[in-house]
Write a structure and sequence with these properties.
three-stranded antiparallel beta sheet; 15 helices; 40% helix; single chain; eight-stranded mixed beta sheet
């Protein structure tokens, strides 16, 4: 593949290009305790003994950054958690929260798995903090977690977390990439220029902390090392030939309780099938966001939308503007992104992401809602997005 086009299209995706990308050599993980199937594995106890000042830790962090960007795309840290009592307390709390969700008939939606097959706690971070503040403090007071987050994102990052339990018999996910572009359809992703495809992975870090032992039969996550380097991969992972290659050539890394894995969100990956009859595979899925993925000014887009909607409706009804032109005005006014949101109240029921306020505003104009109906619907939508 030579110079990248300004726009990637599904027709640009060729398996031969992925194979060539994967085969290219990457940086040698010199500080890893071992390398398994091309994936570097580090020992948490060894890292905790590294000296201050941070010469050695910074060298390790630099290696992690290189591995995540140009190497296998995955970093495994054995014994990331040294406070196993705090981990066990969190596990017990999460199971209580799952029981409460089930009793309330909640918690069925999921991104890449069949709804209701497994158990998920959206925003486990906030629920953990509010229900057990001391346990939360002990759980997240982990310098190794800070090190790996800063190795990829620098300071000022924001952690979110979603607890996932794959129950006995829970089926494997389809291979995919993750947030941001990974939560879009191919048509949506094609609308973003190629440089945004390159930018998306460096805005987040994906991680998972194992709350139980995860031998292979429990279905720990499957990975295709080095696949994050394939530039049009957000459009490719769903194509049959790419999925077939993933199924034949993925690697699977068993984890012990307290181990953690961190990976580039552009890496092709999928949770595996839990083939046991008695193990509820629990992992706290961390999604850590860059400090820089935010606007400079705070804008009340709900108030703007309420004010602008009647004007747009009037322009359309008078024939002074068509709906295509109105969509451009909506893009400058309403929130166009589905996230962040409250996934308990605003789950991704009909796809990978719930609808955005822009979608609601376009629907209202297309169906000629009166302004009060739109204002009420927008307010309800806004409430569903609040933490």
């Amino acid at each position: 593949m030579t110079t990248a086009p300004h726009w990637w299209c599904v027709s640009d995706c060729r398996l031969a290009d992925l194979l060539a990308t994967i085969a290219a050599p990457g940086p040698a993980p010199l500080l890893a305790a071992e390398v398994i199937a091309g994936v570097p594995v580090y020992d948490g106890n060894t890292i905790r003994r590294l000296p201050d000042p941070p010469n050695s830790p910074r060298a390790l962090m630099a290696e992690w950054g290189e591995v995540l960007m140009h190497g296998a795309g995955i970093v495994v840290i054995r014994r990331l958690v040294d406070d196993l009592d705090a981990l066990d307390a969190a596990t017990a709390l999460f199971f209580r929260l799952i029981d409460e969700q089930r009793a309330a008939g909640q918690g069925g939606a999921d991104h890449f798995a069949k709804a209701g097959a497994n158990d998920r706690i959206w925003n486990s971070l906030q629920k953990h903090a509010l229900r057990d503040p001391e346990g939360f403090a002990r759980y997240y007071a982990n310098p190794l977690l800070t090190m790996v987050n800063q190795a990829w994102l620098g300071p000022g990052y924001q952690i979110t977390a979603q607890l996932n339990v794959v129950n006995p018999g829970g089926e494997a996910q389809m291979p995919h990439r993750d947030y941001h572009l990974g939560f879009m359809t191919p048509a949506q992703a094609e609308a973003f220029p190629a440089h945004v495809h390159a930018l998306s992975p460096v805005l987040t870090l994906q991680g998972a902390i194992a709350h139980v032992d995860m031998p292979s039969e429990t279905g720990p996550t499957l990975y295709l090392p080095f696949s994050q380097r394939y530039a049009p991969g957000y459009l490719a992972y769903g194509l049959p030939e790419f999925r077939e290659h993933f199924e034949r050539h993925h690697v699977q890394l068993p984890l012990a309780k307290g181990d953690a894995v961190f990976f580039n969100p552009a890496l092709f990956h999928a949770a595996g099938t839990n083939r046991t009859t008695d193990v509820r595979r629990m992992a706290n899925l961390l999604q850590v966001s860059s400090a820089m993925g935010r606007a400079m000014e705070s804008v009340d887009r709900e108030a703007m939308s309420r004010a602008v909607y009647p004007a747009l409706l009037g322009l359309i009804e008078r024939g002074a503007m068509d709906e295509e032109r109105a969509a451009h005005a909506i893009a400058a006014c309403a929130e166009g992104y589905a996230f962040p949101t409250n996934l308990d109240l605003d789950p991704p029921k009909d796809g990978l992401a719930p609808p955005s306020p822009q979608v609601l505003m376009r629907q209202a104009l297309n169906e000629r809602w009166v302004p009060q109906r739109f204002a009420d619907a927008l307010a309800a939508h806004s409430r569903s997005r609040q933490a």
